[in-house]
Write a structure and sequence with these properties.
The complex is a heterodimer of chains A (70) and B (245).
Chain A lengths: L3 E5 L9 H5 L5 E3 L11 E3 L10 H5 L5 E5 L1
Antiparallel strand pairs in A: 1-4, 2-3
Chain B lengths: L1 E4 L18 H14 L6 E5 L14 E4 L5 H11 L4 E7 H7 L1 H9 L5 E6 L29 H4 L5 H6 L4 E8 L3 H19 L4 E7 L3 H4 L3 H15 L3 E4 L3
Parallel strand pairs in B: 2-3, 2-4, 4-5, 5-7, 6-7
Antiparallel strand pairs in B: 6-8
Bound molecules: thiamine diphosphate and iron/sulfur cluster.
The site of iron/sulfur cluster has 12 residues of chain B, from helix 8.
């Protein structure tokens, strides 16, 4: 069971990849489907590896990421 | 589950108008989080500049003005003097503060106005299409300097934090950057201290934040972070220039 939970407001994601760049576990990627604005939003590949450090959320200029942990 | 990070209540639900990966958005978060954490959100009044942050009144959920170009410190002065109980901050770019508005910021600091300024230095005029700013680095290309800024023609870039720190009425001055998670945390602390300077009635405070403009610099957002590290930080050293007791 994953100990962390990531929630993305994908409609507001601009696909800038700062979260992808700074995630220490390298578990974030851009989706292959666009949102309604035409951006490829972020998604998580393996939530079991997430350590809920919050780095992705801290670096997200659009504040679209909510991080929770057990 | 316990929340580790969620969007600050001092930000609205309106999507930010900044370009993808522009660090204006990160700096907005740091301002918003500090307003709430210091307990001044309910009496906060911000003054937005002219520049990409001119729409900040849509993004901060506290009361906001949008001042004429460079005049945010003058508007903030009026608000603070009439309503000394308000917490008053300006949020200004380098085209706004270091160019057309230099007189305003110098004299607000000189008068020791009890306001706080978040100065976003991205070494360019973002909103109008990447023209050279007083902060543009020597050799850096801009739409009005296609071969790069020439020192012979334009002089060297202006260092605002160092200059403001020489003014007696300025009680807190620091330069920070938002290029890495560690630096973002340090930037948040500096903005906190600048806000405390006003809350404790000490005087004027300014935090210069080195920021990216991926669009006009012509880099990816991550590439712009690297360019900032390699080019801006050596010329604009990070650190505290003035602190209060
Ligand atoms: C009186 C006046 N002069 C010029 C302009 C054009 N103008 C709009 S934004 C801007 C510069 C903004 O640059 P900066 O403050 O660095 O903010 P950024 O957009 O990079 O965040 C200028 C010159 C204006 N709006 N008003
Ligand atoms: S033009 Fe530059 S400063 Fe303005 S929002 Fe875009 S990236 Fe940010």
């Amino acid at each position: 069971m994953a100990k962390a939970k990531l929630t993305f407001d994908t409609e507001k994601c601009k696909g800038c990849e700062l979260c992808v760049t700074f995630c220490p576990k390298k578990i974030l990627v851009l989706d292959s489907e666009t949102n309604s604005k035409g951006y490829y939003p972020v998604k998580v590949t393996n939530i079991d590896e997430c350590i809920a450090c919050g780095t992705c959320a801290i670096m997200c200029p659009d504040s679209i990421i909510t991080v929770e942990k057990e | 589950m316990a929340v580790v990070y969620k969007k600050s209540i001092a930000l609205t639900d309106t999507p930010l108008s900044f370009c993808p990966g522009c660090t204006h958005g990160i700096i907005h978060k740091l301002v918003a989080e500090n307003l709430v954490e210091l307990g001044v959100y309910d009496r906060a009044v911000g003054v937005a500049p002219v520049g990409c942050a001119a729409l900040s009144d849509h993004f901060f959920s506290c009361d906001m003005y949008v001042a004429a170009h460079g005049r945010a410190p003058a508007v903030a002065t009026g608000q603070k003097r009439v309503h000394p109980d308000n917490f008053v901050f300006t949020y200004q770019g380098d085209g706004d503060l270091a160019s057309i508005g230099t007189a305003e910021v110098v004299h607000a600091a000189h008068r020791g106005e009890k306001i706080s300024t978040v100065f976003v230095n991205n070494a360019i005029y973002g909103m109008t299409g990447g023209q050279m700013a007083p902060t543009t680095l020597v050799g850096q290309k801009a739409s009005t300097a296609p071969y790069g800024r020439s020192e012979e023609h334009c002089g060297k870039p202006i260092r605002i934090a160092e200059m403001i720190a020489t003014i007696e009425g300025a009680k807190f001055v620091e330069r920070v950057s938002v290029d890495t998670p560690a630096n973002v945390r340090k930037a948040k602390k500096a903005i906190r201290r600048a806000f405390e300077c006003q809350i404790q009635g000490k005087g004027y405070a300014l935090v210069e934040v080195l920021s990216t403009c991926p669009t006009n610099w012509g880099f990816t957002p991550a590439g712009a972070m690297k360019w900032l590290q390699e080019n801006m930080i050596p010329y604009y050293p990070l650190g505290n220039f003035k602190d209060f007791e």
